[in-house]
Amino acid sequence: MNLQQLQQQIQNDALANFYVVIGDEPTLIQRARTAFKVLIQPEDVDMNLSQFDLATQGVDVLLNDAMSMPFFGGHRVILVDNPEFLTAKGKVSDQEQKQLTQLLSQPVSENIVVFFINDLKVDKRKKLTKTLLQAAEHIDLPALNEQQAKQAITQQLTQRGYHIAPDAMQELLLRTNAQYSAMTNELPKLIAYAAKDKQITLIAVAALVPKTLTATVFDLVDAVMTRQVKKALTIYRDLLQSGEPALRINAVLTGQFRLLLQIAGMTGTDQVIGQTLGVHPYRVKLAKGMLRQYHLPTLRAGYLGMVDIEIKLKSTTQAPDLLFERFILKSA
Questions:
Q1: Is 58 helix (H, G, I), strand (E, B) or coil?
Q2: What would the DSSP string read from start to end of 173-215?
Q3: Does CATH place domain 213-331 in 3.30.450.40?
Q4: C or N: which end of the chain has fewer Cβ atoms within 10 Å?
Q5: What are the DNA polymerase III delta subunit-like C-terminal domain coordinates in residue numbering (predicted)?
Q6: Could you read off the pLDDT of 90-127 as tens digits, one per residue?
Protein backbone atom coordinates (compact mmCIF):
# COMPACT_ATOMS: atom_id res chain seq x y z
CA MET A 1 0.00 0.00 0.00
CA ASN A 2 1.17 3.53 -0.80
CA LEU A 3 0.07 6.94 0.49
CA GLN A 4 -2.60 7.33 -2.17
CA GLN A 5 -4.17 4.00 -1.21
CA LEU A 6 -4.08 5.02 2.45
CA GLN A 7 -5.94 8.22 1.61
CA GLN A 8 -8.56 6.15 -0.24
CA GLN A 9 -9.05 4.01 2.86
CA ILE A 10 -9.44 7.14 4.96
CA GLN A 11 -11.98 8.65 2.54
CA ASN A 12 -13.96 5.39 2.48
CA ASP A 13 -13.74 5.02 6.27
CA ALA A 14 -12.29 1.56 5.68
CA LEU A 15 -9.29 1.73 7.98
CA ALA A 16 -7.60 -1.31 9.46
CA ASN A 17 -6.78 -1.67 13.16
CA PHE A 18 -3.06 -2.17 12.59
CA TYR A 19 -0.54 -0.71 10.16
CA VAL A 20 3.19 -1.03 9.73
CA VAL A 21 5.00 1.78 7.92
CA ILE A 22 8.13 0.56 6.17
CA GLY A 23 10.61 2.63 4.18
CA ASP A 24 13.43 5.14 4.28
CA GLU A 25 12.00 8.30 2.70
CA PRO A 26 11.55 10.70 5.67
CA THR A 27 9.21 13.11 3.87
CA LEU A 28 6.81 10.34 2.85
CA ILE A 29 6.94 8.78 6.32
CA GLN A 30 6.04 12.16 7.82
CA ARG A 31 3.09 12.46 5.42
CA ALA A 32 1.84 9.06 6.53
CA ARG A 33 2.14 10.16 10.16
CA THR A 34 0.19 13.33 9.41
CA ALA A 35 -2.54 11.38 7.60
CA PHE A 36 -3.17 9.34 10.74
CA LYS A 37 -2.95 12.34 13.07
CA VAL A 38 -5.64 14.31 11.24
CA LEU A 39 -8.11 11.48 11.82
CA ILE A 40 -8.49 12.94 15.29
CA GLN A 41 -10.33 16.25 15.67
CA PRO A 42 -8.16 18.99 17.25
CA GLU A 43 -10.35 19.14 20.34
CA ASP A 44 -9.90 15.38 20.90
CA VAL A 45 -6.13 15.15 20.37
CA ASP A 46 -5.25 15.08 24.07
CA MET A 47 -7.55 12.15 24.70
CA ASN A 48 -7.55 10.11 21.48
CA LEU A 49 -4.07 10.55 19.98
CA SER A 50 -1.10 8.83 21.60
CA GLN A 51 2.53 8.60 20.52
CA PHE A 52 5.07 6.17 21.93
CA ASP A 53 8.81 5.76 21.35
CA LEU A 54 9.67 2.22 22.40
CA ALA A 55 13.37 3.06 22.38
CA THR A 56 12.73 4.87 25.67
CA GLN A 57 9.27 3.67 26.78
CA GLY A 58 8.05 0.26 27.82
CA VAL A 59 5.72 -1.95 25.83
CA ASP A 60 3.40 -2.03 28.85
CA VAL A 61 2.35 1.63 28.41
CA LEU A 62 1.58 0.97 24.73
CA LEU A 63 -0.52 -2.06 25.63
CA ASN A 64 -2.46 -0.12 28.23
CA ASP A 65 -3.33 2.55 25.68
CA ALA A 66 -4.06 0.18 22.78
CA MET A 67 -6.49 -1.80 24.90
CA SER A 68 -8.42 1.29 26.01
CA MET A 69 -11.57 2.53 24.33
CA PRO A 70 -11.49 6.02 22.79
CA PHE A 71 -13.06 8.86 24.71
CA PHE A 72 -16.42 10.10 23.39
CA GLY A 73 -16.52 7.62 20.52
CA GLY A 74 -14.80 7.98 17.17
CA HIS A 75 -11.28 6.71 16.54
CA ARG A 76 -8.30 6.41 18.82
CA VAL A 77 -4.94 6.64 17.01
CA ILE A 78 -1.76 5.24 18.55
CA LEU A 79 1.55 5.97 16.77
CA VAL A 80 4.47 3.74 17.72
CA ASP A 81 8.08 4.58 16.89
CA ASN A 82 11.08 2.28 17.21
CA PRO A 83 9.27 -1.03 17.91
CA GLU A 84 12.58 -2.63 18.82
CA PHE A 85 10.87 -5.72 20.21
CA LEU A 86 10.53 -6.79 16.55
CA THR A 87 14.32 -6.90 16.07
CA ALA A 88 16.64 -9.79 16.87
CA LYS A 89 17.96 -8.08 20.01
CA GLY A 90 14.64 -6.62 21.19
CA LYS A 91 12.78 -8.43 23.96
CA VAL A 92 9.43 -8.38 25.71
CA SER A 93 8.32 -10.33 28.75
CA ASP A 94 6.23 -13.48 28.32
CA GLN A 95 3.23 -11.61 29.70
CA GLU A 96 3.70 -8.69 27.27
CA GLN A 97 4.09 -11.09 24.35
CA LYS A 98 0.87 -12.83 25.34
CA GLN A 99 -0.97 -9.50 25.62
CA LEU A 100 0.40 -8.24 22.28
CA THR A 101 -0.62 -11.45 20.55
CA GLN A 102 -4.09 -11.19 22.07
CA LEU A 103 -4.37 -7.54 21.02
CA LEU A 104 -3.44 -8.40 17.43
CA SER A 105 -6.07 -11.13 17.26
CA GLN A 106 -8.76 -9.23 19.19
CA PRO A 107 -8.22 -5.48 18.65
CA VAL A 108 -10.37 -2.71 20.05
CA SER A 109 -12.40 -1.99 16.93
CA GLU A 110 -12.21 1.80 17.21
CA ASN A 111 -8.43 1.87 17.75
CA ILE A 112 -5.83 2.31 15.00
CA VAL A 113 -2.27 1.33 15.99
CA VAL A 114 0.50 2.34 13.60
CA PHE A 115 3.98 0.85 13.96
CA PHE A 116 6.65 2.95 12.25
CA ILE A 117 9.18 0.29 11.38
CA ASN A 118 10.78 2.56 8.75
CA ASP A 119 14.21 1.02 8.04
CA LEU A 120 14.44 -0.92 11.32
CA LYS A 121 15.92 -4.38 10.74
CA VAL A 122 13.15 -6.59 12.04
CA ASP A 123 13.62 -10.28 12.70
CA LYS A 124 10.98 -11.97 10.57
CA ARG A 125 11.75 -15.32 12.20
CA LYS A 126 10.32 -14.20 15.54
CA LYS A 127 6.79 -15.40 16.22
CA LEU A 128 5.64 -11.97 17.42
CA THR A 129 7.05 -10.27 14.32
CA LYS A 130 5.30 -12.76 12.06
CA THR A 131 2.03 -12.24 13.91
CA LEU A 132 2.22 -8.45 13.62
CA LEU A 133 3.20 -8.46 9.95
CA GLN A 134 0.32 -10.81 9.16
CA ALA A 135 -2.24 -8.80 11.14
CA ALA A 136 -1.25 -5.34 9.86
CA GLU A 137 -1.68 -3.47 6.61
CA HIS A 138 1.70 -2.58 5.11
CA ILE A 139 2.48 0.95 3.94
CA ASP A 140 5.68 0.79 1.84
CA LEU A 141 7.53 4.08 1.36
CA PRO A 142 10.89 3.33 -0.31
CA ALA A 143 13.26 6.10 -1.32
CA LEU A 144 12.32 7.72 -4.62
CA ASN A 145 14.72 7.26 -7.50
CA GLU A 146 16.08 10.22 -9.47
CA GLN A 147 13.24 10.37 -11.99
CA GLN A 148 10.55 9.98 -9.33
CA ALA A 149 12.14 12.71 -7.20
CA LYS A 150 12.31 15.08 -10.18
CA GLN A 151 8.67 14.45 -11.05
CA ALA A 152 7.51 14.90 -7.45
CA ILE A 153 9.43 18.17 -6.98
CA THR A 154 8.27 19.51 -10.35
CA GLN A 155 4.68 18.64 -9.46
CA GLN A 156 4.94 20.39 -6.08
CA LEU A 157 6.30 23.53 -7.74
CA THR A 158 3.74 23.46 -10.56
CA GLN A 159 0.91 23.27 -8.04
CA ARG A 160 2.24 26.50 -6.53
CA GLY A 161 2.63 28.13 -9.94
CA TYR A 162 6.43 27.89 -10.02
CA HIS A 163 8.81 26.67 -12.73
CA ILE A 164 12.32 25.31 -12.24
CA ALA A 165 14.83 25.51 -15.09
CA PRO A 166 16.37 22.20 -16.26
CA ASP A 167 19.90 23.23 -15.26
CA ALA A 168 18.59 24.35 -11.86
CA MET A 169 16.89 20.99 -11.34
CA GLN A 170 20.10 19.18 -12.29
CA GLU A 171 22.08 21.24 -9.79
CA LEU A 172 19.47 20.60 -7.10
CA LEU A 173 19.77 16.87 -7.75
CA LEU A 174 23.55 17.07 -7.56
CA ARG A 175 23.65 19.08 -4.34
CA THR A 176 21.17 16.80 -2.55
CA ASN A 177 22.29 13.48 -4.06
CA ALA A 178 18.80 13.26 -5.59
CA GLN A 179 17.35 12.51 -2.15
CA TYR A 180 13.72 13.54 -2.33
CA SER A 181 13.44 14.50 1.33
CA ALA A 182 16.55 16.69 1.09
CA MET A 183 15.18 18.33 -2.06
CA THR A 184 11.84 18.97 -0.38
CA ASN A 185 13.58 20.60 2.58
CA GLU A 186 15.24 23.10 0.23
CA LEU A 187 12.04 24.16 -1.54
CA PRO A 188 10.88 26.83 0.97
CA LYS A 189 14.07 28.86 0.43
CA LEU A 190 13.89 28.57 -3.34
CA ILE A 191 10.19 29.44 -3.42
CA ALA A 192 10.73 32.50 -1.23
CA TYR A 193 13.68 33.63 -3.37
CA ALA A 194 11.67 33.32 -6.60
CA ALA A 195 8.44 34.78 -5.21
CA LYS A 196 8.43 37.68 -7.66
CA ASP A 197 8.66 35.89 -11.03
CA LYS A 198 8.14 32.27 -9.82
CA GLN A 199 11.15 31.11 -11.86
CA ILE A 200 13.75 29.03 -9.99
CA THR A 201 17.11 29.40 -11.69
CA LEU A 202 20.54 27.79 -11.51
CA ILE A 203 21.86 30.92 -9.79
CA ALA A 204 19.26 30.54 -7.04
CA VAL A 205 20.05 26.87 -6.43
CA ALA A 206 23.82 27.50 -6.39
CA ALA A 207 23.37 30.37 -3.94
CA LEU A 208 20.85 28.84 -1.57
CA VAL A 209 21.31 25.06 -1.53
CA PRO A 210 24.42 23.79 0.27
CA LYS A 211 26.05 20.64 -0.96
CA THR A 212 25.78 17.60 1.28
CA LEU A 213 29.06 16.16 2.58
CA THR A 214 28.66 13.24 0.18
CA ALA A 215 28.16 15.57 -2.78
CA THR A 216 31.19 17.63 -1.77
CA VAL A 217 33.27 14.48 -1.46
CA PHE A 218 32.33 13.59 -5.05
CA ASP A 219 33.99 16.85 -6.10
CA LEU A 220 36.96 16.16 -3.84
CA VAL A 221 37.56 12.67 -5.22
CA ASP A 222 37.25 14.01 -8.75
CA ALA A 223 39.84 16.70 -7.97
CA VAL A 224 42.18 14.05 -6.55
CA MET A 225 41.75 11.70 -9.50
CA THR A 226 42.20 14.46 -12.09
CA ARG A 227 45.24 15.83 -10.22
CA GLN A 228 43.73 19.25 -9.48
CA VAL A 229 45.92 19.75 -6.41
CA LYS A 230 44.84 23.29 -5.52
CA LYS A 231 41.14 22.51 -5.87
CA ALA A 232 41.43 19.32 -3.80
CA LEU A 233 43.29 21.09 -0.98
CA THR A 234 40.80 23.99 -1.00
CA ILE A 235 37.79 21.65 -0.73
CA TYR A 236 39.44 19.62 2.04
CA ARG A 237 40.40 22.68 4.09
CA ASP A 238 36.96 24.22 3.61
CA LEU A 239 35.40 21.06 5.04
CA LEU A 240 37.68 21.23 8.08
CA GLN A 241 36.92 24.92 8.59
CA SER A 242 33.18 24.25 8.38
CA GLY A 243 33.52 22.01 11.42
CA GLU A 244 33.56 18.58 9.81
CA PRO A 245 35.77 16.22 11.88
CA ALA A 246 38.83 14.99 10.01
CA LEU A 247 37.99 11.34 10.71
CA ARG A 248 34.49 11.80 9.30
CA ILE A 249 35.80 13.48 6.14
CA ASN A 250 38.32 10.70 5.71
CA ALA A 251 35.70 8.01 6.30
CA VAL A 252 33.40 9.48 3.63
CA LEU A 253 36.35 9.85 1.24
CA THR A 254 37.39 6.24 1.84
CA GLY A 255 33.79 5.14 1.31
CA GLN A 256 33.62 7.02 -1.99
CA PHE A 257 36.83 5.44 -3.30
CA ARG A 258 35.52 2.04 -2.18
CA LEU A 259 32.19 2.66 -3.89
CA LEU A 260 33.91 3.56 -7.16
CA LEU A 261 36.01 0.39 -7.03
CA GLN A 262 32.95 -1.75 -6.29
CA ILE A 263 30.91 -0.25 -9.12
CA ALA A 264 33.85 -0.64 -11.51
CA GLY A 265 33.56 -4.40 -11.05
CA MET A 266 29.77 -4.63 -11.38
CA THR A 267 27.24 -4.74 -14.19
CA GLY A 268 23.55 -3.92 -14.15
CA THR A 269 21.26 -0.93 -13.92
CA ASP A 270 21.83 1.92 -11.48
CA GLN A 271 18.81 0.69 -9.50
CA VAL A 272 20.06 -2.90 -9.22
CA ILE A 273 23.62 -1.89 -8.28
CA GLY A 274 22.27 0.65 -5.79
CA GLN A 275 20.13 -2.01 -4.09
CA THR A 276 23.07 -4.42 -3.98
CA LEU A 277 25.41 -1.85 -2.42
CA GLY A 278 22.77 -0.14 -0.29
CA VAL A 279 23.22 3.31 -1.86
CA HIS A 280 20.94 5.67 -3.77
CA PRO A 281 20.85 4.88 -7.52
CA TYR A 282 21.81 8.50 -8.25
CA ARG A 283 25.17 7.93 -6.55
CA VAL A 284 25.68 4.94 -8.84
CA LYS A 285 24.86 7.06 -11.89
CA LEU A 286 27.36 9.74 -10.87
CA ALA A 287 30.00 7.13 -10.05
CA LYS A 288 29.66 5.49 -13.47
CA GLY A 289 30.18 8.87 -15.10
CA MET A 290 33.31 9.45 -13.02
CA LEU A 291 34.73 6.00 -13.75
CA ARG A 292 34.85 6.73 -17.46
CA GLN A 293 37.58 9.28 -16.74
CA TYR A 294 39.70 7.34 -14.23
CA HIS A 295 42.37 4.66 -14.35
CA LEU A 296 41.71 1.77 -11.97
CA PRO A 297 45.31 1.54 -10.65
CA THR A 298 45.13 5.23 -9.67
CA LEU A 299 41.76 4.63 -8.05
CA ARG A 300 43.15 1.75 -5.99
CA ALA A 301 46.10 3.90 -4.95
CA GLY A 302 43.69 6.62 -3.84
CA TYR A 303 41.74 4.15 -1.72
CA LEU A 304 44.91 2.83 -0.07
CA GLY A 305 46.04 6.40 0.54
CA MET A 306 42.80 7.13 2.41
CA VAL A 307 43.25 4.00 4.53
CA ASP A 308 46.81 5.09 5.37
CA ILE A 309 45.61 8.57 6.40
CA GLU A 310 42.95 7.04 8.66
CA ILE A 311 45.57 4.94 10.43
CA LYS A 312 47.77 8.01 11.00
CA LEU A 313 44.82 10.13 12.16
CA LYS A 314 44.06 7.54 14.84
CA SER A 315 47.63 6.80 15.88
CA THR A 316 49.51 10.13 15.58
CA THR A 317 48.98 13.82 16.28
CA GLN A 318 49.85 14.94 12.74
CA ALA A 319 47.61 17.67 11.33
CA PRO A 320 44.86 16.26 9.05
CA ASP A 321 45.37 18.88 6.33
CA LEU A 322 49.11 18.15 6.19
CA LEU A 323 48.47 14.42 5.90
CA PHE A 324 46.02 15.04 3.07
CA GLU A 325 48.42 17.52 1.40
CA ARG A 326 51.19 14.91 1.35
CA PHE A 327 48.76 12.36 -0.08
CA ILE A 328 47.52 14.65 -2.85
CA LEU A 329 51.01 15.83 -3.78
CA LYS A 330 52.20 12.22 -3.94
CA SER A 331 49.18 11.33 -6.10
CA ALA A 332 49.94 14.20 -8.47
A1: coil
A2: HHHHTT-HHHHHHHHHHHHHHTTTT-EE-HHHHHHH-PPPHHH
A3: no
A4: C
A5: 216-330
A6: 888 899 999 999 999 999 889 999 999 988 888 989 99
